[in-house]
Amino acid sequence: MELRDLLVTPLIILIVYWIAYLVRPYFTDNLNRHYFLPALTARIFCSIAIGFLYQFYYHGGDTFNYHTLGSRVVWDAFMKDPEAGLRLIFFGLESEGTYEYSSRILFVRDPGSYFIVRIASIFDILTFSTYSATAILFATVSFAGAWAFYLTFYRRIPLLHLELAWGILFIPSLVFWGSGILKDTIVLSAIGFAVYCCDLLFIRKSKSIWAMTGIFLSLLVIFAVKKFILQALIPTMLLWIYFHNIVAIRNYVLRIMILPLLVGLIGYSAYWSVVKIGEGDSKYAVDQLAETARITAYDIGFFTGKDAGSRYSLGELTGSFSDMLQKAPAAINVSLFRPYLWEIRNPLMLFSALESLFFTAFVLYVLLRSNIKIISTLKDPDVIFTLTVSLILAFAVGITSYNFGTLSRYKIPLLPFFATGLILILQYSKSERKFPVLDTTE
């Protein structure tokens, strides 16, 4: 904490809330309006809390590396030589005449991490490189993406406004780890906007130029920061679009005739998107994904995260696809339902364990309430989409983390999908998805 935190941060908070009050009428109605400011407030609070956690508990870490050893250096360059600062923001390592500054940036040779430094640098110009104020702007971006995700499903089923709010806006780990100066904050926001714009363009058939721009920029951000999430998201979004369009066909015979073509098209599109996303980066090439998973898991579990005291193991990884697929059930289980209460080794794991216990109980409750009706949910494109994304991401982060502390951050993009899918299935058991039309106007 510095003097600038006490001077600049309150001003930034006032500006953020002033803007929130101005835009709230355009993005809310009388049902969901009372979630808007509390959801924003929760993220603002957590963005500052993360700073305290990293400073006093971890004594350093990613969020300070992005700022103190990242955007603060760029801001310093901008103050002394605005041209050099702008070069560092927009061109990074390729900038000429900026070695004096780039040599001091920890993540300058890691494109994904340096992308976060660039965003933080832009915010730093507005906040005079005030850590807490910049963190609040990150939290605001995170909230905007989360609200877009919420609106995507709320507009179809307004009856579930409260359940969706809890599942998308207020999951504790989702709010906490998705609010600070971290990769996860930006990726989570980009996912929310990508889902919203995809729904607007390809399912609701809007021709909005803003939606086209939004989905392009969102996917570009995810590609720049975490390619593996894009490799999971693109195929499932295509699946979502295709199934929504086939459900719209009322002729049952025609549906059956189109189904084989649809399955082939989905399979080809999914494979093509994964291959294309991995081009130019050997780590994400299709034939290297298993080896990348092995290297990442061992690095986090046995080297960079070995002192955290929260390592887990799914067994030896051989770097082969067959071995990785055999471990898929265990990987999905560790992402969704672990750590168990008896695996707690430090105070932070207690919160993760309690949240995992809640999800375990919620899944059991949904299964018991749904009974055989759960099969009927498999014809719903929204259920297919949300559960498929969550299971793929659960497998991906579970097989590559090998550390519960890291896992608690890496898995947050799957949580809103998983919670939404469970909420939809539960609603099926009550009403067979025949939702009443509610008046959401004043």
What characteristics describe this protein?
74% helix, 442 residues, 20 helices, mainly alpha
How does this model look, in words?
With about 450 residues, the protein is mainly alpha-helical. It has helices spanning about 5-25, 35-55, 60-80, 80-90, 100, 110-125, 130-155, 160-170, 170-175, 185-205, 210-225, 225-245, 250-280, 290-305, 320-325, 330-335, 345-370, 380-400, 405-410, 415-430. The two termini are about 45 Å apart. It is globular.
Write the SSE topology.
Layout lengths: L2 H25 L5 H25 L4 H19 L1 H9 L8 H4 L8 H17 L3 H24 L6 H9 L2 H6 L5 H21 L5 H17 L1 H21 L4 H27 L10 H16 L16 H6 L1 H10 L9 H24 L10 H21 L2 H7 L4 H17 L11
In short:
By secondary structure, this protein is mainly α. 74% of the residues lie in helices and 0% in strands.
The gyration radius over C-alpha positions equals: 22 Å
Distance between the termini: 44 Å
The count of DSSP E runs of length 2 or more, i.e. the number of strands, is 0
Q: Please give the share of residues in helix.
A: over 70%
Instruction: Please outline the major beta sheet.
Output: none
| Unreliable residue stretches | 433-442
Question: How big a fraction of the residues is strand?
Answer: under 5%
> Which outline best applies?
globular
